[in-house]
Amino acid sequence: MRKVLLVLAALFLTWACKTENNEQLISDEGNSSENSIQLSPEQIKASGIKTGKVEKKYISEMLECSGQIQVSPNDKAIASTVLNGFIKDVYVKEGDFIKAGSALVSITHPDFISLQQQYLESKSQVDFYEKEFKRQGELTVENAASIKNMEKAQADYWTAQAAYKSTKTQLEILGINTEKLEKENFIKAFNVVSPISGYVNSLSINKGQFLESANMVCEIINSSNVQIVLNVFEKDLQRIKTGQKVVFYPVHNKEKLFVTKIQILGVQVDSDNRTIKAICNFENKESILYPGMFIRGSVSLSEHEAFCLPQSAIINQNGKSVIFIKRGNDFLERKIITGVTQNKFVEIINPDNEILTSDIVTEGVYFLMTDSD
Asked: Which of 50, 64, 66, 52 is nearest to 341 (CA)?
């Protein structure tokens, strides 16, 4: 009887151990459905894992565009001579900054000397015919001369005056002080001056070179104010309007961001690339933007406040966006729905209370993914 009881006791203990092991197995399987990863404090530190909270930020859907930096027609000028001649002196170099009215080159030619001669002669004739016209007028009043003579004197005076005014204006266009010319000797050369303040560009002349009025001395560019010209595709025209914020950067330096607004929209679609121009004015205070530079721009279409996380907190797993919530030394995987991405932050659409209140892994996410695999 005693032996029977011992056998029954042994069978009972064996059954109890199996039951306990089965319950433990079921419990472990239930925990695995949480998709959690447990790390020691040392592992957390070594992996560089950092956490943060969901933030509220103003974010906007962005329209990406390419474009170029240009200057307005008023900030770009061509310097040229109005009278043919030989270059006597060159006063500037490529890249020099000059003020409006500064001399660029001096030019000399016999025709310039002849123009001064014509001016002085016409001035002398004006003085003579003016006196003759007055004299004939007085004689006509006294009936001592015919009206015909007075009219001829008047015509001669007006003709001389027209020639005088013409040569005087031509000399003034060349920058010659005519009053000084009347008192002093002939001037041997005249200066071509800069029409605007800016930097000298496309200077390709030499001392002694012959220039015609159609030839360019140089180009002057004022880059203190530039235009950001964006190319917007035809399909996006309905989404673009003046006043929208634009963030842009030169293609060679993505880290240097600038902000402006759309001031002007073009009125015609380019037939080749099917784009329209959106123009933004920008004050180039740092003088690091140069006409001709290619840029990339993002147009803010509809700004709104949203819950956001850094891009580094979110990974793509089988086409789904995934984040990790930290609870002590445990990290729980959660799927989320994302929206707009802007400035390295991603909009989280309809986050639940757990996500809003928990610590979210913002750095070291890929370490957790490796560990979970």
From this structure: 64
